[in-house]
Every structure is written in C-alpha cells, then in structure tokens.
Amino acid sequence: QELYAPNLAYRTGPFAATGIPLMNGQADYFAMLNARDGGVGGIKVNAEECETGYSTEKGVECYEKTKGRSIVTQPWSTGITLQVLPKTNVDEIPILAPGYGFSPMADGKVFQWAFNTPSGYWDAASMILQYLQDENGSLDGKKIAFLHLDHPYGKEPLPLLEKKAGELNFELLPIPVGLKEMQNQSAQWLQIRRERPDYVVMWGWGAMNAGAITEAVKTKYPMENFIGVWWAGHDADLKIVGADGAGYKSISWSFPNPEAPVMADIQKYVVDAGLSQSNPEEMAGVFYGRGVVISAILAEGIAAAQNEFGVAEIDASQLRWGLENINMTEERIEELGLTGMVPPFATSCANHTGHSGGWMLEWDGEQFVKVSDHMLPDTSDYQQLIADKAAEYAEANAPWPTNEDCNVGG
Amino acid sequence: MLDAAKTDHALLEVNNVEVIYNHVILVLKGVSLTVKKGGITALLGGNGAGKTTTLKAISNLLHSERGEVTKGSILYKGERVQGLDPAALVKRGVIQVMEGRHCFAHLTVEENLLTGAYTRKDGKAAVEADLEMVYDYFPRLKERRKSQAGYTSGGEQQMCAIGRALMSRPETILLDEPSMGLAPQLVEQIFEIVKAVNEGEGVSFLLAEQNTNVALRFAHTGYILESGRVVMEGSAADLRENPDVKEFYLGMSDEGRKSFRDVRSYRRRKRWLS
Amino acid sequence: MLYDYFIAPFVDMFAAPDFLMQVLWEGLVSGILYALIALGFVLIFRSSRIFNFAQGIMVVFAALTLVGLHALGVPAWISVGLTLVVMFGLAVTIERVVLRPLVGQPDIILFMATIGITLFLIGAGETIFGGENKVMITEELGIPTGDYVLEPFGGLLILQHLDITVVIVATLLVLALLAFLNYTQMGRAIRALGDDHQAALSVGISLQTIWVLVWFIAGIIALVTGIAWGARAGVSFALEVIAYKALPVLMLGGLESITGAIVGGLMIGMLEKLFEIYWGQPFLGGNTETWFAFVLALIVLLFRPQGLFGERIIERV
Amino acid sequence: MLYRTAGQFKTSYKADQALFPVRQDAVLLIAILIVAYVIFPLIASEFAYQTLLIPVMIYALAAMGLNILTGYAGQLSLGTGAFMGVGAYACYKLITIFPWMNPIVAILFSGVFSAGIGVAFGIPSLRIKGFYLAIATLAAQFFLVWLFEKWAWLYNYNASGAIQVPNTEMFGIYLTGPLASSVTQYYLVLVIVSFMTMLCINLTRGNLGRTWKATRDMDIAAELIGINLMRSKLIAFAISSYIVGVAGALYVFMWKGAAEPNLFDIPLSFQVLFIAIIGGLGSILGNYLGAILIVGLPVVLNLLPAALGLTISSALVEHLNIMIVGSLIIFFLIVEPHGLAQLWRLIREKLIIWPFPH
Amino acid sequence: MKDTEGYITPDGRQIGGVLMEMKNITLRFGGVVAINDISFDVREGEIRAIIGPNGAGKSSMLNIISGFYTPSEGEVFYKGEKRPPMKPFEVARMGVARTFQNIALFEGMTVLDNVMTGRLTHMNAGVLSQALWWGKARDEEMENREVVEKVIDFLEIQNIRKTPVGRLPYGLKKRVELARALAAEPSILLLDEPMAGMNVEEKEDMSRFILDVNDEFGTTIALIEHDMGVVMDISDRVVVMDYGKKIGDGTPDEVRNNQDVIDAYLGVAH
Ligand SMILES: Nc1ncnc2c1ncn2[C@@H]1O[C@H](COP(=O)(O)OP(=O)(O)OP(=O)(O)O)[C@@H](O)[C@H]1O
Ligand SMILES: Nc1ncnc2c1ncn2[C@@H]1O[C@H](COP(=O)(O)OP(=O)(O)OP(=O)(O)O)[C@@H](O)[C@H]1O
Ligand SMILES: [Mg+2]
Ligand SMILES: [Mg+2]
Questions:
Q1: Among all ligands shown, which has an atom nearest to the Cα of B46?
Q2: How distant is the alpha carbon of residue B248 from its chain centre?
Q3: Which residues surround ligand 1 with Cβ inside 6 Å?
Q4: Where in chain E is the domain with CATH 3.40.50.300?
Q5: Rounded CA gap, C289 and D60, in Å?
Q6: Residue D49 has what DSSP assignment?
Q7: DSSP 3-state assignment of E124?
Q8: Conformational region of residue B230, where left means phi above 0, alpha means psi within -120 to 50, and beta covers everything else
Q9: E3 touches chain B (CB under 8 A)
Q10: Number of domains making up chain D
Q11: Where are its TM segments located (chain C) (predicted)?
C-alpha cells in the first residue's frame, strides 16, 4: 500500500547540473517522511524517479509509463508540461509544476489539472520590477535588458514585461540566448556592453546561467544590476566566479535554511541512514532547499486530500482537490519544520498558483542571502492576462473542458 | 629465360586454404602452393579463379573486404603468418602490389614512392638511392614526379604502384596483374625488371597474371587456378608445352596462333580433368 | 531601409572603434576555440576518412577527468599527466574495439560509429563524474586569470589573460601539428592512409599504430580545448554542443587541412560575431550564431566544393 | 529447406518483377500485415501504442524518407529533423488557417511544403558532395529550427512558442488532439505508412530507383551514361523531403500532440539517421527493423531493471541506457555494416541453401 | 564537310561516311598538354582503334568524345554537325555509350539493374506512374527488360543476372560494363581497354562480342587497347598517339609498319 507520486527527474543531459540538487532535495524529503512518519497520513509515498534528461520526448514516455498508477505528474520542464497538459484533462491526473510551466495555469477554471504552485513566472517578473522600482523610485526612462533562453521557458515573462514596459515607461531589450550558445554568450554580452542597460534581468537555465555570470564578470558589468529568476540562482553557478559575483541577485520563493527543523530530520533519517545522494555543500544550497519545499507542497496537498476524503490512499482526482486547498500559513510552515524556507500561501479552485511571493536573494561572494523582506507580486497587473491567455489556449484546443464550478476569487 | 628455380627451398607455403567472403561465398576451395626462395612463381587462371583472393589471403588484406580464411595454413619461412597485421608481414619482407593500382591519389608520385619505404630503417641516403633506381626503371615517373597520382594515366599509376613496392626492399613481392593496362613495350619492360630484381637482388615473386604468355616466359614455376582450385602445376617450361595450356591460355592451337577475327565462329571448349 | 541594412552597421562600426575591436577580439578567441575542436577532427579525418563526431564529447571527457582527478586530491599537473594517460587508453580502446573491426567500411558507417562512441562516452562520463557543473582548475594549473584593460580611441577594450593564453597555446599547437604532418615520415603515412587504406596496409603502414597515435593526439587537443572552454564557462556536458560549431569550420577550411581549420575557425568566429552584433541583433531577432556559420560555409562551398584549403576532389574516369 | 526457392520458376518478366518473386516472402508479409492490422489493435495497451507501435511506424516512415535520399540517392542528410519540422508546422498552419480541412488531407499536403524546402536546400548538392554536403543539410537544420523559434506567425503567436494540436474530427471520431484515441491514431498512421511504403518500394525498384542508385554508386559514370544528375538528385530531395515532411506531421499530430521548436533539432535528425543506418541504407525493410530496434531498445532497457527486480536509480538506468544504446550501435555496425536488412538477407540466403553451409 | 563515300574492308564490309570527327583537338591540364592538336575521324560502321603508350592521352580523347572533358582547343563534329558544348548526359542521350578504363559499374546494384541503367535514356514514365507501378511505367519496365535480356543473352551473363556486381571478378565486370553500354543501343560505342586483365580465352570471347555487335547492329566502335594482337586483328583503322601527338593513322598493316609507331610503341614489329 503506497501512494505513487513519480517524479520525471533529470539527472542527466545538458541540464543535469541544475536538476541533481533539486531532485535530491525532493527525494530526501519524502525519504524523511517515510522514515519518520511512515509517509503521509500513515501511508508511504513512493516518489520514484523516471529519468527524462530534460528531453520532452523521454518525458512524455515517462508520463505514459507512470500514468496508470500515479496520483500526480511532476513534469519538470516547460516542454514536457506543455506536452502533457492536454493529456491530463483526459487522464485526470494533476500536474504539479512548482515555479515553472505555463503562467496562465494559474487559472484553475481552465487548467483544472495543472498547478504551478506557489509562484509563476509572471509573479517573478512582477516582483523583480517592484524591487527595481523600490530601488529607483521609478523606472521611467531606464533600460532593462532581458537576457533569456531562446525557448518557451525563456519567453514566458515577455507578455507581462512588455505590458509593464509600456506602463512604467522603461525600455525593454530582449536578448535571446540559443540553446547551443549557452556556453558561448560573448555576442549577447557585447550587445549588453553596447546598449549599456541599467539592469539585466535573466531567465536562464542550465549551463546558460554559469555562462552568463562568467561573461558578466568578464565584461565588468556591475553585478548588483544583474537579477535572475529563481532558476538562475544556483549556488554552483556562482561559485565559478566566487567573490567576483558578489551583488548578483535572484528572486526566489524558497530559501535554504540549514537551521530549519526539517533539515535536521533529513540529516537524521536520511543522510545518516545513508539514503541520500546529496552532500553537505549541496544541501546548504538554494536548489536543494527548493527541492525539499516542492516535496513539502506535494505532501501538503496529499494531507489536505486525506483529511477531506477521510481515506489514506487517495486517488488522482482527490489529490487535485488537495492541491486546490493547500493552506500554508506561517503556523503550518513552522509545524512542518520549514522555518524560513517558503513564504506562506494558499491555493483555491480558481487559483492554482497561490502567488506566494518570495524574497530577493543576493550572492555575497560565498552564498545567497536574503536582501529583502517577503515580497508579494502585484497580481492585479496580470489577472486579465491570465484569463485571456487561458481562454485563448482553451479555444485553440477546443473542445476543452472547463470547471465552471470554480468561482474566480473564491 | 630460366627454366628452373634457383633453389628448392620453400619460402612461402600455402596449404589447403579456404576463403569465404561475407560468411557465405566460398571462393577458395583448398588452394595449396609453394613459392621457392629466389624463384618467380606464376599464378594463372581465368577471371574469378581466385588469384587475387589467394594473394590477399597471404598478405592478410582480406579482412577489410569481409573475407576470411576458414581453413588451411599459410607459412612464411616456416612460420604461420595468418592473422598477422599486414604491416607486420611487410616488416618480414613480404609486400603486395595490388590489382587495380591503388595509388594514393592525393599524394604526388614521388610521395607515393616514398611511402613504400615506410618500414625501412636504413636511412635517408639508401632510400634516395632506391628512388633513383626506380626512376631509372620508369623514366616516365620521373617526369611526373610532382603530379598528384590521382591525375596520372592508368599506366603511370601501375608503374607507380610497382615502384612503390620496390622501394620497400622486399624479400618477396606478391604482384597482382602487373601487366594490366600497360603498353606492350612496357609489359615486356616490367617483366625484365622483375627478372632483374629477381636475379640481381634475389627477390622472390609470386605473380598473378592473365598474360600467360609473358608470365610463363619469365616464371620458373606456375600454378593454374580454376574456380578456387589448383588444377595444374609444374615448371613453367612444362606448362608452356602442355597442350591444354597452349590452347586456353596461350591461344595457340596446332596451327599456331589464331586471329581474333577468326575465333568468332569457333569456341574453345574447356576440358580440364581435375 | 537599404541604408539601415547596408550602410548603418558600418557607420556604427566606425563610430565606436573600440567596441569593434572588442567584437573582433571576442570573435578571434571563439574562433580559435572552434578551430581547436576542428583540429582534432582534421587529424582523424586525414588519417582515416572518419568524420569523428566524438571530438566534442572527448573535450568534455578530458576536462572532466582532469577536474575529477584533481578533486580526488591529485596535484594539478600530475592530474594533467594522468588525464593524458586516460586519453591514451581511450585511443587504444577505440582503435581496438571500434575502428579495427570496421576497417574499410563506408565513411558513413564510421561516422555513425563515432556517434555510438559519443553516446557511450556521455553515459560513461555521467556515471563516473555526475552531471554537475564543475569548476575548471584554472588557477591551480597556473593559467593567468586577470585582464588587461586598454583604452584605444578613448574607448574600452578588455583582454582576458586567459584568452591571450589560449591564443598563444593554440598557435603553438597548430605549428607543431603542421610540422608533424608535412615534414615527417609519419605525417606522410597519415595522409596516405586517408587516401587508400588498403594500399597503405599493403606497403606496411600499420593502421593500428597510426590510428592510436592520431586519436591520442586528438585526445591531447581535446584536453587543451577542454581546459580553455572549461575555464570560460565551467565544465559540464552542455559543452558537448559546441562540437557542432566545429563542423562548419571544418567544411569551410577543408576537411583535410590544418591551415583550413585555423583560417576557417577565425573567419567564422569573427564574421559570426560581427554579423550577430551589427545585423543579427538589430534586424533578425538575434541568435543568428546558431546558423550563420553553416550558411557561410555553405556559400563558400558553392564556390569551392572542397573548402578553402581542402584537397581537390579528384574526379576521373 | 524452410526457404526453398528451387522449383519456383518464372515464366515471364512480369512475374520475375513482381513485388515478391519468392513465395515465402509474400506469405511472411501477409502474416505481418495481419498482425499489424488485426492482432495488435486487439491486444495492445495504451502504453504500447504510445511508446512502441505509433512511434515505430512514424520513425520508420521518416527513416524511409531519409533512406531515399541517403541510402538510394547517396546524398548524406543531417537535416531530417528540420524537414520533419517543416511538415509539422505546415500541417499546423493548414489546420489552424483552414479549420474545415480534413486532417488527413492536411497531413498529406503538408509534405508538399517540406518537399519544396528540401529541394531548395538540395540545390547545393549539384556541386557539393559527401560530408561537405552534410553542411548544406546542417545549415537547413539549424536555420529552420531558428526560424521555428523566431517566426511567431508559425506558432500563431502562442505565448508558449509551441504548437498544440487541436482536436479535429471526421465522421464524429476524433482524429487528432488530446481527445483522439490511440487506436484511431494507430490505424491512421498504419494506413498512411503502409501506403507510403508501397510507393517507396515501387519507386526504388523502378527506373527512378536505378537512377538514384547509379548516382549514389558513381555519379560521374552515371552522368556519362546519360543520367541528368541534377534532375536525379533534386527529385530525390523532393520525394525524400515529402515523405519526411509527412512523417513530421504525423509525428506531431498523431503522436506528440504538441511540439516546441527544439523538438526538431539535431538529435531527432540523428535518431532518424541511426534508424536508417542500423536498419540498412538502401533498403525499405531496414527502416522498420531499425525503428523497432532504436525505438524499442530504450523502452525495453527502461523496463528491464524493474522486471528483474533490481532497484537502480533512474539516473543510473538512463546512463546505462545511453551507454548500451551507444555500444549496440557500434556492435550492430560491426556485425553488419549494411544493417539489419542485410543481416536478414544473409539469413535468408542461408535458409535457402540450408542445410548446406555454402 | 560531310563526306559520304566510305570504303570496303578486306573482309567485305561496307563502311559508311564520317560519323564523328575530331578536329585539331588540344587538351591541357594546367601545364600538362595531354593532347596536342590531334585530328581524326570515325566512320559509320567501322571499328576504330586508338593505341599509344601509357599517358599518351587516349583516355582523355575518349573523355572528350563523351563530353567529360571539354577540349582547350578544337572541335568535335558529330554526324556532320559541330557539337556545341554539352553536358556528358546530353552526349550520352545523343547515342554515345562507353565503357571505362577503371571499371565504373554501380557496385551496389545487381547485374540486371546495372544493365537496365543503360536503358535509362529510353525510359520516360512519370514519377507518379512509377510510384504506383501502373500504366506507362510498368509497360516500359517490361519492354526494356526484354531488350536488356537480349543483351544479357548475347553476352552470356545470364547466370549472374541477379548477383550484385561488387562480388564479380574483374573480367566479368568488364563484360557487364559492355552490356550496360550495349543496352543503350548506341550509334557509337567507346571502349576503353575492354580486354585489360583477361586471358586469351576471355579476350577471344570479348573480341567476338565486339565483332558481333558491329556486325549485327552496325554499331560504330572506337576502342583503346594495348593488346596488339587484338587491335591488329579486329580493327579496321588505327590511330596512334604518343604523348599527346598523333604519330600514325591507317589500316593495321600500315600502322604496323610505320617506323614512328614501332619506335614509340610497338618496340618490335608484330
Ligand atoms: N569482396 C567480395 N565479396 C564477395 N565475393 C568476392 C569478393 N571479392 C571477390 N569475390 C569473388 O571471389 C571470386 C574470386 O575473385 P578474385 O578476385 O580472387 O579472382 P581473380 O582470379 O583475381 O580474377 P581476375 O583475373 O578477374 O582478377 C570471384 O568469383 C569473385 O566474385
Ligand atoms: N584530369 C586530369 N588532370 C591532370 N592531368 C590529367 C588529367 N587527366 C589526364 N591527365 C594527364 O594526361 C595524360 C594523358 O592521360 P590519359 O589518361 O589520357 O592517358 P592514356 O593514354 O589513357 O594512358 P593509359 O594507357 O596509361 O591509360 C597523362 O599524363 C595524365 O596524367
Ligand atoms: Mg584478380
Ligand atoms: Mg587510359
């Protein structure tokens, strides 16, 4: 008897460097729960990994292979998410894509089965702009370069950024980085040097981040004006430049807290038992911590469903209800031992993201530290955008079932 | 013209060799032959008899054509040489001139000749001297020494291939159809060179030839191969006198040579008693 | 309109000569790095007509071995030595297991086999070293890491010490290879082998020795390349994709030519950078570097089907 | 004995040039067709459809297209992935611009677009040969994928930059999109692929096929005996790209359901090339054998540890997979460089002379 | 300048007018002058031999005739008309077929397919018809197959019909090559050393084929050959080349006794 919650992991391929700490964090959290509490609600969670190598094709294969028994699918790449999104409607399995995937997934009425809890890319963009606004008073007349992977993921925040550029009157300069040029970004940085933007905002992934950061150091771009999304905030990428990278920032909805009780439990039940693939240095990093948080969110969804339906062995659609009714209050976070690792948030039928907000982190030369209080995105900016894009998607994929029972705002 | 081998000492022995191409095509069905030290041995036979295959079996060049020796043994100076790297065989003094020239197309004629000396360790001067020797044998090559071999004529390439073999100072040369595509004068000349090298330097030859006439004039012993089997062997003089050989290989009947125009209405019928 | 496309970019260039110089310098450095990978290809192609797709992964493999050994506590330069031993072992294995049984097969089959090698090395490398991004041991190897900041025309030009070192090392490597191929017996044998391996065998050139040698040299080049690239962007499997960049370089320069690899590398490195900065980014949405090199090579090939320095394709009947 | 051909005499050239002059071959083919059309749909699971049956067919078709160009006409192409992409994007645009269009018609028509682009990139083949030609196809590969990324019109300005297959129906049955059932899609793919296979067999054994093979084997001689090389090569590019384009449309519309530009990047080209080569260049049957091997192998390898009761981490399984696939490619190339089809031919030859060894 | 009078050979065949005329042909490769101002003609129905030492430029001459090389100077007249610059395949379509010194068969195809390629110039069914194996394509295939089978019978290679040519021994390949050229039913057949690498018996066979082709189909033949026995026996007229220059032209007997030819080529009188 177990809950089958497979993870479409990628510990291989060109993005493995970033995948490994995340997957380790995820795996270790469930291993800890299984060892400490006998799982969730008394039932073990089988968090088996299916390796995708970040390839969409393999991901879909994993999905097909696991969907028979699984209560959730964690596709772990925007490409795979897009691919399985329509299938989950038919198969009725919730997608959990924390902090990635398609931003309009926030609209639970249309995307009944998809969750990008606790924050989506438009949240990230909104917070970054807010931070810059706070720093400068106004962005009027500023120039912001948007360095991004030339890939659906990299282009996600563009609609919002373009909209805001008009509203706040700053100049937006999108600079794409090809998948094959990730390690060789001198052209992009030459462009940055020529254009002299006030800020560089980065939507990078995998080897692109390290490439961009080294290139920024080389061209002497002021690091404090360089801000990345949460996937561009990996300790290992910054360690390559070390102190030269000091000042680099990354917005994040998670934070590693080695002092948090949950970390002690992981140490005790998993690491000391020899069940972890991780190492202390990695465990202190942002990505490992984020992996832990992601699993914790999933466990919360499971627990919520178990409470509601009064069964331990919930099924996929019950989990969907659970994921729609997560309520991560400060108290609950303390209770779970995740102190300081994730901001509070709540999901609902209509709101599949939760818009938790996050913190601005800064590399101090050795590690990431929080340099802001808990920030919240201005969701009103893009509520309409979410609704429009979701409707557009549903139309293009007609007939697309929607959940009319949801009350927006409810 | 010699009538007997210089010595009776067997240098190269091929015993009952069977070769299969591509796992299914049986080409040599048990070929045995001996090359005597210091002798010129001719291997005769029609198209597809298996001459080339025999030579390649000896020099271990079958491998890359997906052929393999499945039976029998090949001994050089009493040692088994099967399965040796072709290069190792060259070091032991056996070199092959392949059918169809096989020059290095992008190398100049001179560079082609120099690669022949690849395994030699006796210094630049000796190699230079041999180069001159080859040029003496083939003055046409000297004229074209700077041309890329790929752009020389068929005959020039043949000369180049033979010259290249000579450059390695071998003990034994396996010559596959040296006369093919050469002007008659040159055929004669090449065999004279073979003879000179054989007599002067004691190099032994195993030569596969279609031009039976010339081959038997210069060889000491001969083997006749038909569809993968040796059907006749003997001294060159004997073979020359054999009526069957005369008929089929020398194109002579009792009345002497027949005109190619007359053979139209007349076909020879094979009648080997093997 | 026309002015925008054909005149304005040049005006830009002259308006900021320091920037132009920086662009050219960056192009030069990446060109040299492409050329380094291409060199490994050329050597192997010359000696066996094998289009060695595995050169890219060999770069990663060499760099990972070096970093991995150092992480085990082996001193930097001894790690270099040991890595060379590993590369030699790799060359011997590849010759034994893959090349020898495939002697004489059509080019495309051998090409496929090298893709097989690539896959194998990716799998093996990830199993042994893990997929994490690693930091190249630049300082431990004594490679300078600072930069010179020059101010030509009152502008700014940043030259990394690292890049300068790469340029110098690559130049030396190329000169050594050129001398080796053109002035040694072995060099001639390598060229002969590429033309007709049967004939080469028949004159006593040992395929095995030469192939091991050539793959080993390619391994050395891979290590140098790996150090150079690794120092710039860290060592990870993502490096493998830069191998694609070597392909147009090769084609442009000519598959058999060392000189071609260098000239091709520099041409592509600089032109693609110029094109991207002055045309690609302003007019085409950027990221033209993914295809520019290929299209350039294609155009050159239309005029010289064997590349700029390749051997003339002999067509006779 | 099993494969005795003795006694099967042909009395006319027509009989001699029939598709399967040997009776056993025809029997075998019929058996295979029955399995494909009747048995599989009865027993296959959803997983089997999605990871084996449908992809094998589609990859086999793509490989067949490539094989026409590379295996028959001798022009090495590394751009198959991009040409598949052209087919897929063309089909997407057709279906979204003309929603009334029958999806089957759209799929078959989309090949025309990739044929056109294939011919354009094939023009350099008149001057450039061998590996150098690969550059032309690589240029196509990289340029087209870049274009799929940059030209937002192609993906209808979707925020995601990906194309999503809409639901389309015919006679009330969903043919494409998430609502279509696997069985329907399987049959559709099967019919299209069988039909195309038949066309390919005919083309390659006829006059055009000989023209291509002559061009491949020795282009100079081919031209000297009267072959117009330009025509021969360009037709090969056109037909090959057409098939590849249709395969690309099927790939997205009948299998993937959605596609982002880098799906069509070079790994896809290599995958198809692998299939064509491992299967056997210059063989139609080989494409199927190659596809079964290359598509099936990773699936089997992935299932293996679980089946054996081993617990190996999924990453290690993946690493081992890659290593095993790499080694097997080398292994098969060594065993039979001319591919599985040649292996089958050898087995057949052996069966014919069985029980004698030669 | 069409001359229609022919001549009658010693064995009584009527030779027609000039079919192909080479006028002042010069061919240079960089510095090498492969052919230097050579003129000669080939008459309808005759067997014309070209001989000369290695590297004399014989093959190059054949290559000019078949359009593979373009002469640096001089012109080619075919059937009395000056031939404009043409691609080799266009020349082939005008009825010029040839064999090659270094065998140029299509190694990956069977003998039958190789010979069928000879018929390409006679087939023109559309792609669609071929793809469906229906209508014109199929009929054409059958008709041409019959022609090819005749050639195969004629050259006695029936038993290897379905063998891939890569597996054949040298001599048989030469014969297949001849078959391919014959299948085109050319008006002029160019043979580059058709008998190299054959023994006497096989040369006899080959001679027979050549003579029969000439006789039965009236095909004009130009051939290069080093076996003087064959050349002198079967050819009607012989051109002798030496390092790019023409040093003799005439009947076998005239050539045989030409001192220049003896010095440059024959060595001893045959
Ligand atoms: N690579 C190969 N694969 C299959 N069969 C082959 C191969 N090479 C040669 N054969 C076959 O082996 C037989 C002997 O060929 P081989 O070349 O040895 O003959 P040969 O006596 O040298 O003839 P020739 O005088 O024409 O050169 C021929 O029937 C040929 O078909
Ligand atoms: N494409 C070319 N490039 C350079 N030189 C060439 C080319 N083709 C032929 N030659 C040269 O022209 C001369 C004549 O060559 P050709 O092949 O016509 O000689 P041949 O008379 O046929 O001789 P053989 O009897 O040896 O075949 C040779 O010296 C050759 O090197
Ligand atoms: Mg032979
Ligand atoms: Mg010639």
A1: 1
A2: 20
A3: B 21-22, 25, 27, 45, 47-53, 65, 67, 99, 210; E 167-171, 197
A4: 1-95+186-270, 101-185
A5: 33
A6: I
A7: coil
A8: beta
A9: no
A10: 1
A11: 20-43, 50-71, 77-99, 108-129, 158-181, 210-229, 249-271, 283-303
Helices C207-233 & C161-183 angle (0-180, nearest 10): 170
**Which ligand has the nearest atom to the CA of E199?**
1
In a domain, D30, yes or no: no
Does the beta-carbon distance from D350 to B20 stay under 8 Å?
no
Side-chain half-sphere CA neighbours of D55 within 13 A: 26
The neighbouring-strand residues paired with E25 are E38
Rounded to two decimals, the ipTM of the complex is 0.86
On whether residue D19 sits in a domain, the answer given is no
DSSP string, D216-236: HH-HHHHHHTT--HHHHHHHH
Q: Using CA atoms in the order A321, A325, A326, A329, what is the torsion angle rounded to 10 degrees?
A: -170
Is residue C135 within 8 angstroms of chain A, CB to CB? yes
In sequence order, what are the beta bridge partners of E29? Answer: E32
Domain boundaries, chain C: 2-245
Query: Scanning the structure block, which residue is given the tokens 């080997």?
Result: B272
Helix, strand or coil, per DSSP, at residue C314: coil
Please tell me the distance in Å from D230's CA to the nearest CA on chain C.
15
Write out the DSSP string of A165-202: HHHHT-EEEEEEE-GGGTT--HHHHHHHHHH--SEEEE
**Residue to probe by mutation, ligand 1, list B19, B21, B211, B224, most atoms within 8 Å of CB:** B21
C-alpha distances in Å from residue C163, one per residue of A61, A102, E25: 43, 40, 59
Tens of pLDDT, residue by residue over E74-124, are 989 988 888 888 888 999 888 899 998 888 899 888 899 999 998 888 888
CA D315/CA A17 separation, integer angstroms: 13
Between CA C155 and CA C17 the distance in angstroms is 8
Looking at residue E2, what is its pLDDT? 45
Distance CA D232, CA D236 (A): 6
A146, β-bridge pairs: A174, A201
Q: How far apart are CA C110 and CA D131, in angstroms?
A: 12
Residues 248-287 of C with CB under 8 A from D: 248, 251, 255, 284-285, 287
Question: What is the rounded distance in angstroms from the CA atom of residue A131 to the CA atom of residue A360?
Answer: 8
- Chains with 3 or more CB pairs under 8 A to chain E: B, C, D
Q: Decide if domain E101-185 falls under CATH 3.40.50.300.
A: yes
SS3 D87: helix
Q: Of the candidates A75, A66, A22, A68, which has an alpha carbon nearest to the alpha carbon of residue A48?
A: A66
A399 pLDDT tier (thresholds 50, 70, 90): confident
Whether CATH 3.40.980.10 fits B37-62+93-252: no
- Record the pTM: 0.88
Ligand 1 pocket mutation pick from B19, B52, B56, B96 by most atoms within 8 angstroms of CB: B52
Angle between helices C207-233 and A207-218 (to 10 degrees): 70
Distance CA A87, CA B266 (A): 81
Q: B271 pLDDT band (50/70/90 cuts)?
A: very low
CATH number, domain of D93, equals 1.10.3470
Beta carbons of D131 and C307 less than 8 Å apart: no
Q: What are phi and psi of C184, to 5 degrees?
A: -120, 155
Spell out which residues line ligand 2, taking CB within 6 angstroms. B 151-155; C 316; E 29, 32, 34, 52, 54-60, 101
Q: Which CATH number fits domain E1-95+186-270: 3.40.50.300, 3.40.50.1390, 2.60.120.620, 3.40.920.10?
A: 3.40.50.300
Any chain E CB within 8 A of the CB of B261? yes
Burial class (CB in 10 A: 0-12, 13-18, 19+), A108: buried
Cα distance between residue A63 and residue D319, in whole Å: 19
A353-367, B37-51, C276-290, range with the lowest pLDDT: C276-290
Radius of gyration over alpha carbons of chain B, in Å? 19
